[in-house]
Every structure is written in structure tokens, then in C-alpha cells.
Amino acid sequence: MAVTPEQILQDLKAGKYAPVYFLQGEEPYYIDQITDYIDDNCLNETEKGFNQTIMYGKDVNVGQIVTAARRFPMMSDRQVVIVKEAKDIQDLNKEEGQSLLMNYLDNPVPSTVLVFAHKHKKVDGRRPLSKTLGKKAILLTTTKLRDYEVPKWIEGFAKDKGFKIGYQSVQMLAEYLGNNLERLSNEINKIAINLKEGEEITPAHIQKYVGINKDYNVFELQNAISAGDVLKANRIVNYFAANIRANSIIPMIALLYGYYTKLLLLHSSKDKSDSGLARAIGVPPFIVKEYKIAAGRYPIDKVMQCISLLREADLRSKGVDSGSMPEEEILRELVFKLMH
Fold it and tell me: At residue 227, does pLDDT exceed 90?
């Protein structure tokens, strides 16, 4: 049965364990989270000695896994078999191996909790095994979050931890940490242990505990460009240029591209109400005013020109038609052109 990570964790926390979990896909965060929960909580420390088996895909075949799963627990109600790096199981992609696993899935041992941590890859959806897993196991398929989904994930994660977080703080974390959920969760946890429950995570907290400068970051550069504040934009560019290795131009281009794309969507939206524009560009309604002001400074033809400039800078940063121009100079020139 295909389910969400939240559904699986909810059942596990309620003490409901299934005979087989097959956790696969591009996003390892949820696979690790579920595997670790079963590892830590399914058995107590006394039971683990005889009843918990950890295997690694590259060292085993399906037959060895099934043999381990068919054993009965000793002095415990259940046993746990966890197969890490399951994408490397020697014969999982071969007909014989898949047949062995499907036979086990037809009649799994109820006292065994068998977990496949199949990170960074999926089994071939065209093969019978995939369909059998979907019907007879707890099947989780994870995908990487898209950039526009990251802010909502950050808000939800902070809320689940018992903290508030404002729009600017969310954007700072999303811009600098991207869609790496493990890194995002680690950094938010790092902040959380220094705050009281219910407090708001602010840019100052992010600067102090994560190391992102609240005055010199891509978000502030975007604001300076949007407001036409040449002095502030130049100050931030100089800060970045002084340590360009730690402030690569590529994520800056990605963020600014997203910003001008939102302006393009705003200009094109038929619903000009704040709520309609918020839906169109994917921001909270209280932020729309800032985009409307920016749209006044950037008519649609200017927005298209800026997107073209960003595309050109992206190519040059990757060595296309850049000559010997260093990255910091590409950044300086890009910001100057965007603002003039």
C-alpha cells in the first residue's frame, strides 16, 4: 500500500507495525526518519541483542534477507530485519531475486518487521515486484521537494517543533540551504535547542546559530534590487565578491530568476486582487504589496530583459562566452544591468 511518510510515522508512534516496509526514492530524509524510528523503538535494548538484524545491500542477496525474515523471535513478540543501502542488493533487479521476495510478500511472517531502505533509487515500476510491493507492503516513494515547496516545508517543520517562523526567516533558510531536508532539519533543530518553545525563529537567530548573515544575503540583495537601492546593492555585492567561493553566483541567479518569474506571473495574472496575485505567484498575501511596488518599477518588457540577463549570466558563470572574467565581476555586472 502506497502511503505518506506522515501516515507511516503516525502508525509507528501508535505502536502499529507492518510486516514489510519498502522505502524508496530520491529524498533520503523520510527514509532515514522512518528507518531510524523502527530501529530505535520497535524493540527495547534487551530484545535487540537476539531479535534485531542490520544488513547492507551490497553484502547480501534476497535469499539471505528472506531467510533472516522467516526466523521467529526469541523471548520477544517480534524481530526486526533492516536492510540498509537496499538498492545495492545483489539480485534485487534479477528475476530470481524478485520472485523470492514476491513469494515472501505473499505470506510474510507476522512477527517480523522487515525494512528495506532503498534510498536514491526506485524499483522498476514496470516489473511485477513493484505492483506486488504496492499491494502487499507498506510502500513509500519519496521525491525531492521542488524549490517552491521548500518554504512551506520549513514552516511546517518549525510549527511541529513548537516554534513560529516569519516569512523572511523562511526565505533565508530556503535560499541558503535549498531543498536538502536533512540539512534544513539539522539547522532548524540547532536553532530550536537555543530557544524556548513558542518563540519565533528570527533572522537574528539564523545569523547566530546557522551562520547566515542577516544583512548580507541573497534575500537582502533581491530587496535592494527591487527597491532600486543602488548603495545597498553595491555594499552586498562587495561583501559577496570579497569571498566569492563561499558566495557562489549560481544560487543567487536561481533566486533572482524565481523573483523575476513571479513578477512576470503578476503582470500576467487576470485576478489583480491581493489574494488572486498571492495565489498566482505563490507568496503569502501580506507580501503581495512588495511585489506590486516592484512591478511598478519593472514593466513586463523590463522583466523579460532581466530574465534574459540572468540567463546570460548563468551561462557565463559556467564558462560560456565569459573569457577570463572572474565570477565576482560577472556578479557585479549582472547587478548593475538589472538596476539600470
Answer: no
